[in-house]
Design goal:
The protein is α/β, with parallel strands linked by helices. 42% of the residues lie in helices and 19% in strands. The structure holds adenosine-5'-diphosphate. The site of adenosine-5'-diphosphate (ADP) has 17 residues, from helix 1, strand 4 and helix 5.
């Protein structure tokens, strides 16, 4: 069984992320979307909330599992029996960083390969941080976030204001 892992912070999951999830789920037998703990970031949503949001927007995809981890990605992949990391690639800015991470992961776990799915052109500009920025200005978010989670996002914004 070909198991792939799609890691990220997903704070929150956007329709750009969801597009990658849907496409990767058709390529692999099983896709594990893993919310990674990143000590350097100060997230809007807790780890549990981010997992819950992704579960809700992927509930129609039976071969997608949602998990979280504070392990090194290369170790997590080994433990879960996966040898493929899936990443979404937007403009050139993602490339340098992702290329470096792919090489490091391969160095730590030589069985681990990273595969890139290019972002769809309509999602090239989309990032969780941009959505958070726009949210503060009351912009309509239906082109950026899955419809189901917009109320969660609005509530969170309201609580933090
Ligand atoms: P961000 O906070 O920038 O949205 P994440 O860490 O949550 O980033 O992203 C996880 C993965 O999803 C990364 O591989 C990132 O390149 C990819 N990704 C993020 N947004 C998009 C998008 N709009 N289209 C395609 N891939 C994306």
């Amino acid at each position: 069984m070909k198991i792939a892992i799609y890691p990220g912070s997903f704070d929150p999951v956007t329709i750009g992320h969801l597009n990658i999830i849907q496409r990767a789920a058709t390529i692999f037998d099983k896709l594990i979307v893993c919310v990674m703990v990143n000590a350097g970031k100060n997230p809007m949503f807790t780890l549990e909330e981010r997992v819950d949001l992704i579960r809700r927007v992927t509930d129609d995809l039976p071969n997608v599992e949602v998990d979280s981890s504070s392990e090194l990605l290369a170790d997590y992949a080994r433990r879960r029996g996966s040898c493929v990391i899936v990443k979404g690639l937007r403009a050139g800015s993602d490339f340098e960083n992702e290329f470096q991470m792919a090489l490091i992961n391969k160095k730590i776990n030589p069985e681990l390969d990273t595969m890139f799915l290019t972002a769809e052109s309509q999602y090239m500009y989309l990032s969780s941080s941009m959505v958070k920025e726009l949210g503060h200005y009351g912009v309509d978010l239906s082109d950026f976030l899955p419809e189901k989670i917009i109320p969660d996002f609005q509530n969170k914004l309201g609580n933090r204001a």
